[in-house]
Q: What sequence folds into this?
């Protein structure tokens, strides 16, 4: 049974809702065959529409396409490997004022990814250059779970090639206070 | 019908309630690291066991991009190369760890004609000895034959 409790953090968190989570991200490289090949090999996914020109040309796609689940790969930040462990795994310094940082500072340092929803409006082709914008959709009320007390954060990333929306990803995490583990019902 | 014979299912062949051929994947450190790096995810929890343990995980664990990619592979390995994925929606649970087989299963929830195409929705699950790693749904379209 969830309990109503005073939540002094709420006003501070509320101002992040509906706002960008960071600056827009541009893919460092256009969609390309070498990166598709790495993915195909890493996953042993032998779907011929990803690498076989002759097969793909006669398919509904009319030519090779990138594996759809690579969507997020194209705009992943270029990492600075030096110091990555000290940054908790973040590929770069997080300089921006955002809800995740605000929760970390308030002691809600635990992070558990709970949901991912990928939507593909069209498959990507070599040469497509992706841009991504991410907006914080919602922050739940403070909840008690078996992991501890925390908040569910949901954000949506929209992927575009020029102005055309080609895909979206909804992502949800639970940010919790580790010292409250076991506080749940 | 499958990626191996390069044929794609026809919408009229898809039966509601039918189960997908199960797929068992041996999860090794190599698989986890290869998937993480191919997806450009350099988070040390996906390649550095010491880092993962310091964060409270038992070992390195698979990144979410790889999980989504394997769900996609599971579906198109069965439905064929021209199945076009429209949605992969998963709830994330137990981590996928080295030494634990990931068992993929799925079932057709609906299949209906839509214009020239068929749209199929599946329930999917990937589980290991710890429980459900990912559960959810996948929607894809099949071209008209």
A:
């Amino acid at each position: 049974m969830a309990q109503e409790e005073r939540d002094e953090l709420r006003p501070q968190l509320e101002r992040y809702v509906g706002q960008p989570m960071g600056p827009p991200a541009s893919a460092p490289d256009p969609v390309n065959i070498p990166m598709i090949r790495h993915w195909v090999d890493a996953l042993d996914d032998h779907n011929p529409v990803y690498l076989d020109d002759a097969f793909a040309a006669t398919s509904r796609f009319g030519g090779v396409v990138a594996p759809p689940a690579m969507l997020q790969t194209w705009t992943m930040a270029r990492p600075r490997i030096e110091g990555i462990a000290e940054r908790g795994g973040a590929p770069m310094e997080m300089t921006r004022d955002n809800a995740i940082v605000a929760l970390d500072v308030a002691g809600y340092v635990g992070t558990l990814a709970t949901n991912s929803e990928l939507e593909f409006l069209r498959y990507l082709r070599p040469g497509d250059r992706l841009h991504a914008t991410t907006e914080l959709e919602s922050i739940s009320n403070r909840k008690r779970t078996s992991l501890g007390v925390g908040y569910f954060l949901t954000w949506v990333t929209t992927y575009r090639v020029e102005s055309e929306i080609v895909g979206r990803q909804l992502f949800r995490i639970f940010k919790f206070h580790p010292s409250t583990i076991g506080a749940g019902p | 019908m499958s990626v191996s014979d390069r044929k794609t299912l026809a919408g009229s062949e898809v039966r509601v309630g039918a189960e997908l051929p199960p797929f068992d994947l041996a999860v090794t450190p190599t698989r986890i690291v290869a998937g993480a790096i191919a997806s450009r995810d350099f988070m040390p929890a996906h390649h550095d066991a010491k880092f993962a343990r310091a964060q409270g995980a038992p070992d390195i664990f698979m990144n979410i991009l790889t999980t989504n990619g394997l769900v996609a592979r599971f579906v198109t390995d069965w439905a064929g190369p021209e199945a076009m994925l429209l949605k992969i929606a998963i709830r994330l649970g137990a981590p996928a760890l080295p030494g634990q087989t990931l068992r993929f299963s799925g079932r057709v929830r609906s299949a209906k004609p839509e214009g020239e195409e068929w749209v199929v929705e599946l329930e999917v699950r990937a589980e290991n000895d710890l429980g459900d790693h990912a559960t959810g749904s996948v929607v894809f379209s099949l071209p008209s034959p």
